[in-house]
C-alpha cells in the first residue's frame, strides 16, 4: 500500500520519534515538505520500507534497500533507475542504493493542487539476465514517488521554480513581504475558479499583503498594466492604474472600473475592471501586472500612497481613504516621484513580544513587488463585438 517513508518531516529524529510510518492524513498536519511512495507492486515481506524518500529544498533523495522484495535476494544497482530519463544511482553501499535528483530532473512532472506543489517520478526496477542466462528470477517493478511542498509556506526562496504559468502570483521570502494579487468571484467570497471571461463582464481583483511580524500596514496598488504576454514591457500595453494609485481606466466612457470602498482590511485593497481585450490579438489573452507597495497604517494617505477612483457623476477623483486633495494630481497626471514614497526598512525591533518593522525615509525595494495575474482569456459575445481600444501607458 502507499506509505510515507522516513525522514522528511522535521528531520530523521522526528521520524524515529513517530515510528517512521505516517498515514497520508497525518502528514498534512505538517507544514514541511513530505513524501509519498506506492510500494504496492513490491509486496515486500521485509519489515523495512524498501524505498525511502527525503524531500529536500531543491532535490529528492531516494534510498532503495537492495532486498527490494523482502526475500533476502539482493537486486543489482544497475537494474535500478529513477524517472523516465533513467537517471542512475549516485552511490551503492552495502545493502542500499541512493539516487539524488533535482526536482525538475530525471523526467519528473509537476502538478498543482490548491495547497501543494507535487513533483512526481518513478523508481524503475528492470532486471536484466545475468551473463548468458535466458531467464530472470524477479519481475520488473515501477514504484511511484512524490514530493509535496506546501504552496503557502516559505519552503525556500530559491529552490522551487515552477514551470507552469500561475493563475495568480504570490511573492515572498524570508526578508520580503508576501504580496498577492488574485481574481475573485463577484461577491468577493472566494477566488474565481476560471480565468475565462466574456466582454461585458467585470474582473474583480483583490490585492493583499501578509502583515505577520510587522506593524500594521496599509496596502496600495501603485500601478497596473495589461499586456498580451507575461512580459510587462511587451507591446501593445494598456495602463489601468498609474501615478501612484490613480485608476485611469475608470475615466473611459465605457468603463465602470473603480476601487472598492471601504477596504475589507488595511492590508487588502479591492478593485474592479471591465473586461477588455486587445484589437488584432487572435489569442485573446491578457496578463495584468501590478506594482504593490505598503505604508504604515497609522500614516495618512498622501499623493504617493493612495487609491483614487474617478467619480463620473461628479466628474472628480475620490480616494478610498484620506482627503480628496491627495487625488488632485490624478487629473494632471503628475503625482511626484515614487522615490519619496513611504516604504518600510529592513531594521526590526522587538515590541509586544513580536518583531515590528518601523518606518524609514530610505526606500526599501524588499517592501514592494510586481505581481501578475494571467493568462486571462477574453471572449467576445459575437465576432463583430466592438472592442475597447488600448492606449500606451
Helix count equals 3
Name of the CATH superfamily of the domain at 178-335 and 367-379: Zona pellucida, ZP-C domain
| Residue share in β-strands | 35-45%
Order of helices and strands: EHHEEEEEEEEEEEEEEEEEEEEEHEEE
Largest sheet, described in full?
A: 6 strands, antiparallel
Outline the low-pLDDT stretches. 1-30, 153-175, 339-363, 382-393
- Going by CATH, the architecture of the domain at 178-335 and 367-379 would be Sandwich
CATH class of the domain at 178-335 and 367-379: Mainly Beta
Helix content: under 10%
**What Rg do the Cα atoms give?**
27 Å
Structural class: mainly beta
Average pLDDT for all residues: 76
What's the total count of β strands?
25
Q: Shape from CA axes?
A: elongated
As for the CATH topology of the domain at 178-335 and 367-379, it is Immunoglobulin-like
Region (Disordered): 342-363
Keywords: Cell membrane, Cleavage on pair of basic residues, Disulfide bond, Extracellular matrix, Glycoprotein, Membrane, Secreted, Signal, Transmembrane, Transmembrane helix
Protein name: Zona pellucida sperm-binding protein 3
InterPro entries: ZP-C, ZP-C_dom, ZP-N, ZP_chr, ZP_dom, ZP_dom_CS
Amino acid at each position: 500500500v502507499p506509505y510515507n517513508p522516513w525522514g522528511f518531516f522535521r528531520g530523521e529524529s522526528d521520524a524515529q520519534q513517530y515510528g517512521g510510518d505516517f498515514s497520508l492524513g497525518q502528514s498534512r498536519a505538517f507544514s514541511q515538505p513530505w513524501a509519498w511512495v506506492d510500494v504496492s507492486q513490491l509486496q515486500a515481506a521485509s519489515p523495512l520500507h524498501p524505498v525511502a524518500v527525503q524531500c529536500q529544498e531543491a532535490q529528492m533523495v531516494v534510498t532503495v534497500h537492495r532486498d527490494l522484495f523482502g526475500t533476502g535476494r539482493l537486486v543489482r544497482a544497475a537494474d535500478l533507475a529513477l524517472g523516465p530519463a533513467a537517471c542512475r544511482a549516485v552511490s551503492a553501499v552495502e545493502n542500499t542504493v541512493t539516487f539524488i535528483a533535482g526536482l525538475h530532473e530525471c523526467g519528473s512532472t509537476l502538478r498543482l493542487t490548491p495547497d501543494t506543489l507535487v513533483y512526481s517520478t518513478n523508481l524503475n526496477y528492470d532486471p536484466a539476465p545475468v551473463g548468458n542466462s535466458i531467464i530472470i528470477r524477479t519481475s520488473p517493478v515501477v514504484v511511484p514517488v512524490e514530493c509535496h511542498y506546501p504552496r503557502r509556506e516559505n519552503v525556500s526562496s530559491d529552490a522551487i521554480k515552477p514551470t507552469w504559468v500561475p493563475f495568480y502570483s504570490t511573492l515572498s521570502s524570508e526578508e520580503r513581504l508576501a504580496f498577492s494579487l488574485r481574481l475573485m468571484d463577484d461577491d468577493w467570497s472566494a477566488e474565481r475558479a476560471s480565468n475565462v471571461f466574456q466582454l461585458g463582464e467585470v474582473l474583480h481583483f483583490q490585492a493583499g499583503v501578509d502583515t505577520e511580524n510587522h506593524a500594521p500596514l496599509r496596502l496600495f496598488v501603485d500601478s497596473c498594466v495589461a499586456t498580451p504576454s507575461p512580459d510587462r514591457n511587451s507591446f501593445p500595453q494598456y495602463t489601468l492604474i498609474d501615478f501612484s494609485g490613480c485608476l485611469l481606466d475608470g475615466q473611459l466612457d465605457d468603463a465602470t472600473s473603480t476601487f472598492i470602498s471601504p477596504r475589507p482590511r488595511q492590508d487588502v485593497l479591492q478593485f474592479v475592471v471591465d473586461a477588455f481585450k486587445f484589437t488584432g490579438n487572435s489569442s485573446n489573452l491578457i496578463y495584468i501586472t501590478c506594482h504593490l507597495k505598503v505604508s504604515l497604517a497609522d500614516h495618512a494617505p498622501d499623493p504617493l500612497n493612495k487609491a483614487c477612483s474617478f467619480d463620473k457623476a461628479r466628474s472628480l477623483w475620490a480616494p478610498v481613504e484620506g482627503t480628496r486633495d491627495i487625488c488632485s494630481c490624478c487629473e494632471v497626471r503628475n503625482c511626484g516621484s515614487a522615490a519619496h514614497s513611504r516604504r518600510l526598512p529592513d531594521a526590526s525591533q522587538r515590541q509586544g513580544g513580536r518583531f515590528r518593522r518601523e518606518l524609514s525615509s530610505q526606500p526599501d525595494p524588499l517592501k514592494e513587488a510586481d505581481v501578475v495575474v494571467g493568462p486571462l482569456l477574453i471572449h467576445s459575445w459575437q465576432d463583430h463585438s466592438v472592442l475597447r481600444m488600448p492606449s500606451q501607458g
